[in-house]
Amino acid sequence: MSNLLAGAYLAQGTIGNVGMPGAPIATFSLVVVPSQNSVSGTVVVTQAIQGPDSHIVVQVTGKIYATGIGNVTKVVSLQGQYVHSVPPPAIGSFLANFDAHLAIDNAWNGTGGFSYYQHNVENVPVAAAKSLKEELV
């Protein structure tokens, strides 16, 4: 039981075309446990265009696997659900699905995509967040 979290680490970054006006961006903060092939954490999807999907917070779980193929050393899948509220004149809310897939290197940089209610973002950059130490230098 003591080795259950062996090698666990925090991965943070973005999925999407950061800097492109109106592009949806998924920011992730994940606890990765390679020994269990598991990933869990939070994804926040933001978009500058106002609407019911302009700010979504999703608790996600998923899997991570080593590939051994060139620059893509890991593949990650994420799934979760969030409450989607229907804009007026309709009334109501329902659980909507969120899915993401990443093909990344050991530094968590690569390519991926994500989908959420009636939105599908494919073949966009995945970029690891700069650590606070790097930003202070």
SSE blueprint and pairings:
Blueprint: E1 9-15, E2 25-33, E3 38-46, E4 55-69, E5 72-85, E6 93-104, E7 110-116, E8 119-128, H1 132-136
Antiparallel strand pairs: 1-2, 1-8, 2-3, 3-4, 4-5, 5-6, 6-7, 7-8
What is the compact description of this entry?
This protein is mainly beta. It contains one helix and eight strands.
Describe this structure in words.
With 137 residues, this protein is mainly beta. The chain has one domain. The chain contains one helix and eight strands. It has an eight-stranded antiparallel barrel. A hairpin with a 5-residue loop joins strand 6 and strand 7. The longest helix is centred in the C-terminal third of the chain and has 5 residues. The chain starts with 8 loop residues before the first strand and ends with a helix.
**Helix proportion:** under 10%
**Number of helices, counting only DSSP H or I runs of 4 residues or more:** 1
- Secondary-structure element order, as H and E? EEEEEEEEH
Question: How many domains would you count in the coordinates?
Answer: 1
Uncertain residue ranges: none
Please name the defining characteristics of this protein.
mainly beta; 8-stranded antiparallel beta barrel; 8 strands; globular
